[in-house]
TrEMBL record:
GO terms of biological process kind: proteolysis; signal transduction
Composition-biased stretches (Basic and acidic residues): 408-447
Similarity field: Belongs to the peptidase S41A family.
InterPro entries registered for this protein in UniProt: ClpP/crotonase-like_dom_sf, CtpA/B_N, PDZ, PDZ_sf, Peptidase_S41A, Tail-specific_protease
CDD domains assigned: cpPDZ_CPP-like, Peptidase_S41_CPP
Residue ranges constituting the PDZ domain according to the UniProt record: 89-171
Record keywords, A-Z: Hydrolase, Protease, Serine protease
Domain of life: Bacteria
PANTHER family: CARBOXY-TERMINAL PROCESSING PROTEASE CTPA (PTHR32060:SF30), TAIL-SPECIFIC PROTEASE (PTHR32060)
PROSITE patterns given in the database record: PDZ
Lineage: Bacteria, Pseudomonadati, Pseudomonadota, Betaproteobacteria, Nitrosomonadales
Protein name, UniProt field: S41 family peptidase
Gene3D superfamilies: 2-enoyl-CoA Hydratase, Chain A, domain 1, 2.30.42.10, 3.30.750.44
One GO MF term attached to the UniProt entry: serine-type peptidase activity
């Protein structure tokens, strides 16, 4: 019986390899310069597949085995490449359109746990106090270790108004923290604006979604109509913005740059990944949209701008900040950004699933790669938080290297360890304000915002927030 099973497994393996080799072979040849497929490795994969099918202690569906193999393949590349089944792909599409159900956190996988990259403003996660760098170890009674990122995300999403308990490991805390969150339909308003005082406006972008460019144009026109005097300055707030759609970032940049200025360019292995995107409708008004910036008042091309960034500003946020910085169109203020300088392309598959694959690195107009480095502000202004608790791309395992580094694609481990040690030593010498909960952006308690306003008004800028005063009076 055993020999029959083995014979069956080998036959199945051979047939499976034949299928793998024959599927889309012509498309593969058109898209790559590889001379041949790795037949020996594919044969081993098929043999393992057949052994699991025949010998595993319980029956396993073919679809589950294949999906798990695909997930492992993508996860082993870098922190941002992933396989999505049909349901996960639909959820992604809903998220980029600005409405989805869940908790409202941008996450990645780290050492088998779900790491919080940034909580989305006004979401249940944000209001509950989850922070960048938190490691989620349990979802209700389910251990996260052993789940894929997609599985964990599915468990966090669910019917609105239902509860979920997250058990979280936070650096600096002696024991795990628990957060009880109520799921909600996340209706993310990506652009918010308000007048600060006569002549000064404020615009906050929380994500780069399908309609962010149009919403920004409406917000700026609204500010222009309401203002009764010439606009003196604008604060563009990109803090804790995890990124989003590339063309939306180009559109936001184009609102403040001269027409045809270079916003960003990308470099990858395939022809489609090599792009130069400029401040032109052809590059930001895609998918059949009209030019939503054509009626934008010209004063926004010259008004003084301060862009606020922090460690939660990633990807598309860094594209905007980098473009405005390189063209000397704005002063960048805050702390160093996240450092995600890679481009992910969504590639739909024939069965309704999709892969999110890292296909290129992007560069600012002056040729800077911010991958694993981030945007360094023109003026560093502390936000009062402990810098050792900030999460950056360089802290993620398997992160892509920065191509401008002298070592190229060499192992970044030594450099990362040296940076962490230097940060720890610096902390011993510096005093920082107590870490506080979420602060209302553009309020009197928002230290970075008040310094941005000081800069626009020509007043002195304070770079470090005064530490919170602690009473020493005895009872």
């Amino acid at each position: 019986m055993r020999s029959k099973l083995e014979k069956f497994g080998l036959l199945g393996a051979g047939a499976f390899v034949g299928i793998l080799v024959s599927i889309n072979i012509s498309a593969w040849a058109d898209r790559t310069s590889m001379s041949q497929l790795p037949i020996d490795e594919l044969r081993v994969f098929a043999e393992v597949f057949a052994k699991v099918k025949s010998d595993y202690v319980e029956p396993v569906e073919d679809k589950k085995l294949i999906n798990e193999a695909l997930s492992g393949m993508l996860q082993g590349l870098d922190p941002h490449s992933t396989f999505m089944d049909a349901d996960a792909y639909k959820e992604l599409q809903a998220g980029t359109q600005g409405e989805f159900g869940g908790l409202g956190i941008e996450v990645a996988m780290e050492d088998g746990l779900v790491k919080v990259v940034t909580p989305i403003e006004d979401s249940p996660a944000y209001k509950a106090g989850l922070k960048s760098g938190d490691l989620i170890m349990k979802l209700d009674d389910t251990q996260v270790r052993g789940l894929t990122l997609n599985d964990a995300v599915k468990r966090m999403r669910g019917t609105p108004d239902t509860k979920i308990v997250l058990t979280v490991i936070r650096k600096g805390e002696d024991k795990p923290l628990t957060f009880t969150l109520m799921r909600a339909v996340i209706k993310s308003q990506s652009v918010k604006n308000k007048w600060i005082e006569q002549g000064y406006g404020y615009v906050r972008i929380t994500q780069f979604q399908d309609r962010t460019g149009e919403d920004l144009a409406k917000a700026l026109k609204s500010l222009q109509v309401e203002n009764k005097t010439p606009l003196k300055g604008l604060v563009l707030d990109l803090r804790n913005n995890p990124g989003g759609l590339l063309d939306a970032a180009v559109g936001v940049s184009a609102a403040f740059l001269p027409k045809d200025d270079l916003v960003v360019y990308t470099e990858g292995r395939v022809v489609d990944s090599k792009m130069r995107l400029n401040a032109t409708p052809m590059d930001y008004a895609r998918r059949g949209k009209s030019d939503y910036l054509k009626d934008l008042p010209e004063e926004f091309k010259s008004v003084p701008i301060v862009v606020l960034i922090n460690a939660g500003s990633a990807s598309a946020s860094e594209i905007v900040a980098g473009a405005l910085q390189d063209h000397k169109r704005a002063t960048i203020m805050g702390i160093q950004s996240f450092g995600k300088g890679s481009v992910q392309t969504i590639l739909p598959m024939n069965n309704g699933s999709a892969i999110k694959l890292t296909t290129a690195r992007y560069f600012t107009p002056n040729g800077r790669s911010i991958q694993a480095k981030g945007i360094v502000p023109d003026i560093t202004v502390d936000d009062g938080s402990d810098p050792s608790l900030s999460l950056h791309e360089a802290d993620l395992k398997r992160h892509l290297s920065n191509p401008t580094d002298a070592k190229g694609n060499a192992d970044n481990k030594a450099a990362d360890e040296a940076k962490a040690k230097a940060a720890a030593e610096k902390l011993k010498e510096e005093k920082h304000a107590e870490t506080r909960g979420p602060i209302e952006p553009a309020s009197k308690d928002d230290f970075q915002f008040t310094q941005a306003m000081n800069l626009l008004k020509g007043l002195p800028v304070q770079k470090t927030q005064e530490p919170a005063k602690v009473s020493t009076a005895k009872p």
